[in-house]
Amino acid sequence: MSKVLLLDDTDDPEIVGQMGAQLARLAKIGIRIVDGFVIPIGQKLEFGASNEILTAFDKLNTERAVLRSSVNLQEYESETLRHIGRDALLGAISYMQQNAARRGRLVAIVVQRDLNAEVSGTVHSVNPVTLDKSEILIEANLWMNHTVLSGESEPDMLIVNKRTGALSLESNDEDEIYLSPKQISQLHGLIRKVEKHLGGAISVDWAYDNNRLYVLRARPINNKTYERFK
Fold first, then answer.
1. For 11-53, how does the pLDDT look when each residue is reduced to its tens digit (9 = 90+)?
2. CATH topology of domain 5-113
3. Which CATH class is domain 119-228?
4. How far, in Å, CA of 213 to CA of 123, rounded?
């Protein structure tokens, strides 16, 4: 097996973990994901592997990357390192592998180009506030989504009818929301397509970079998702 895999090379979670497998499945149905590669589960940073990893990074044509751990467990929280340059790449990978090993885990490492997003967020195929399956909930904020996840900012919360795509502004003023009508329509179409192909209630992290929609990751909606909105 290759020491470095492209994101769409395999959707086997035993090789690339659940996150890597989901990204491969999304790419295969025509969803735009961020350029990157995967260091498979169990791959050690020996001399040959290190050279392949650095070569793969150079092909991304970026100064900075985002690293995410990916394991073959649905409930495992992914570790993320951002703004990693070439000089720090191998050290960051080693750190993530060792950190997972201390928890008794073997991880794949997903390495992707670091986006300079204008707006980002999460779209849920079920309204996690009301549990209404006929509604989609879009969370959106300026810049990258980690500002919401870290509590640094509060996102817009937009309710969209799953069948019609009609927007319910709720407490949001139409002139103040971060997303354009076209972007809301694109996110509505995206979550319906992902839900259809992956099955079940699902959340998708997304970002717009240079007005292009990218999917960062997809994961099943579970009790932890619902707890966040209580």
1. 999 999 999 999 999 999 999 999 999 999 999 888 778 999 9
2. Dna Ligase; domain 1 (3.30.1490)
3. alpha beta
4. 12
